[in-house]
Amino acid sequence: MKGFFAGRTLADLGRDLRAGRTSAAALLERALESIDPDLNAFAAVDAEGAAAAARRADEELAAGADRGALHGVPVAVKDVIDVAGLPTGMGSAHFAGHVAAEDAACVRLLREAGAVIVGKTTTHEFAYGASGDVSATGPSRNPHDPARASGGSSGGSAVAVAAGMVPLALGTDTGGSVRIPAALCGIAGFKPAFGTFPVDGVFPLAPSFDHVGVLAATAADCRTAYRALTGSAEPPAPREVRMAWVDGMVPMDAQVEEAVRASFPDLPVERVDLRAARRVFAAIQDAEAYDVHADRVERAADLYQPPTLDRLRRAGRTPGWRYVRAVREREDFTRAVADLLGRYDVLVLPTVPLTAPLIGQRDSDLGPLQPALVSLTCPWNVAGVPALSIPAGFVRGLPVGAQLVGRAGAEHVLFAAAERCAASRG
Amino acid sequence: MKGFFAGRTLADLGRDLRAGRTSAAALLERALESIDPDLNAFAAVDAEGAAAAARRADEELAAGADRGALHGVPVAVKDVIDVAGLPTGMGSAHFAGHVAAEDAACVRLLREAGAVIVGKTTTHEFAYGASGDVSATGPSRNPHDPARASGGSSGGSAVAVAAGMVPLALGTDTGGSVRIPAALCGIAGFKPAFGTFPVDGVFPLAPSFDHVGVLAATAADCRTAYRALTGSAEPPAPREVRMAWVDGMVPMDAQVEEAVRASFPDLPVERVDLRAARRVFAAIQDAEAYDVHADRVERAADLYQPPTLDRLRRAGRTPGWRYVRAVREREDFTRAVADLLGRYDVLVLPTVPLTAPLIGQRDSDLGPLQPALVSLTCPWNVAGVPALSIPAGFVRGLPVGAQLVGRAGAEHVLFAAAERCAASRG
């Protein structure tokens, strides 16, 4: 079953709304009807609150108060982001029954843009995992094969968009948690530059790397949402985009690499040691994540899903000096990336080096699953630069993502490159 | 034996120099004669280089080129600070025979101010200890009782000044390493605000807290050196100085506390939990120190003095999440100090809660010696604010220091408070 929003862009919806061919209330109904409980994309649905918001959106539009591209659009929000009056469950028994008192700052941006919040999407427990199948509320399931993981941690958001339940969702991305499920589910996901979206009201994973990002069917819709939420004008499209292929020196499924590379033929190749960036990422993320959870591990370890608890205990043993050294090495890597992004506008590589794993799978042909999943995405959290995953075909019937990385302040170049590629693919 | 410079201020020396009653060359000779090898203040003396510098200083003065208060003044430099062409031994067998290629940035400031560098002063190994008696070149000895430690880690610098070998010395202060030996040797020591003096060319201990500071007989001489090296003009003396006594909730020798308090009677008392600041300090210092030393511990552990190696190994086990939490708690403490320094101009407390321990002593009536020694000084490294230790009498025949803490940018208030106190003591 494909939901209503499959194949409908934000631009389509906006035109229909403004032409009176549909209404926010009708779009909300289509969203609610499209929710397929078997895919477990939603941890909570707010039919009532959403109906009120849709009504307001319709009244405003009728009165000529147009809030822009997201006005009246149904949106889903990852369940580590507070929405006032709704549960924030974090995918964890620790937060069972917890209801948020206030909207997160990024949710306020959504509301100011006129979006209609449909509900909260399933997350890997505390966003601490890239497979999306470890959660107190169960795994989110890949629409392309429900036996397979969505990827994570923003798995529910990716599934909700990929299955056409909503045209847009918010996620969080600390090491790839927006881009990875976007790639594995065959949609687009955008993590802007570090700090672009405020993280107040978002449960922290590793504050040095935590980003809020958007998931939508296409790069164009990610761009539309990004512009609407940041309120920034779109600069003119660049005439020329200098692109390079990044050889990250990381193990990859050869067919995945080939599929992505076929979408970007004839690029110059730059070797960048992404393994070093992943080590930096792991040391910093683990120390910061354990700081967030130390008291909870002490007090009520049993409430964690066992894989999360294992991971946290290992994270707690990261030595302080490794953290200090990683902070230093992060600066080196960030400088190297800045240098590369001085010579090229956009760097291209696969988003994930493999296709969607089976639910419960912990290993892969490339080694332990978790580090393999983030190996190509986390370096851009380390560097804090904008990174976008777009659909790049299929391997063995499963979606594959291409990742485009650019400079902060040159997001329009990144989006232009992505849209040209999509256009050339037809 | 008291050296030539005992009882002579920088102002005295400057007047004599400019009146032609002495010369830089003569002052250097007095310094070299005053060096008492039994006190082990110097790790290296540069008679030849110093003679050349003194000659130049005399020629310049004769030609009317006056570099100011430090022109022609013999100065000693702690042996973790690079002086081009001289050994930087770090008090460690690891750096035996190591000769610095370039001047540290703070040494360049000394030279630009016309100072004559006499030699390098004994340091606690790698500046990683506050007793000053753990060093490949042996302990520096307290001039008030050579069986006792000078305090550290800038022990040799304090001894050189206290015994009248030089009127001024540079030290480094990560948790009190300028102020502690100053207090225990009966002189003044000033750690300016974090970042005031550059640390390039200074061997790091814990970069978050590393400061360069000055040691001299009196607060007035510290002020003179501070002004000369920063090139900053002296603002007019404040009319009123609001002072408070800090009750740091830390164990103290009652007689030490009484002696310091007697110098500052009738101050309002503010309770500040300095124990929490010490825990923050320890977590950050230990993780950063081990980062600096990890490869050396791996490669050649045997070259460390055993107490240093023990300490490093313990430091290496500081968990990363404790470091992360300490960085966060540091912000809280820094804010609390800023609040207090909004209500008062100067905070007063003892510099060290006890008097000079015996050489080799590792324990004290207040618990393990090392944490006791830094308990009252390290909080001001955590907060990064200027702190000055001044002589405050004697207990059981050993010197005691009063510590004055102020706001960055209001150093003149700190010095004014110290000089008024000294004047009132006569």
TrEMBL record, chains A, B:
SUPFAM superfamilies for this protein: Amidase signature (AS) enzymes
Give the InterPro entries listed for this entry: Amidase, Amidase_CS, Amidase_dom, AS_sf
PROSITE patterns annotated for this entry?
AMIDASES
* Domain Amidase: start-end pairs: 31-414
Name the Gene Ontology molecular function terms of this record. catalytic activity
Cite the residue spans of the region called Disordered: 134-154
Question: Cross-referenced PANTHER family, in alphabetical order?
Answer: AMIDASE AMID-RELATED, TRANSAMIDASE
- Name of protein: Amidohydrolase
Q: Which organism was this protein described from? A: Actinomadura rubrobrunea
Q: What is the lineage of its organism?
A: Bacteria, Bacillati, Actinomycetota, Actinomycetes, Streptosporangiales
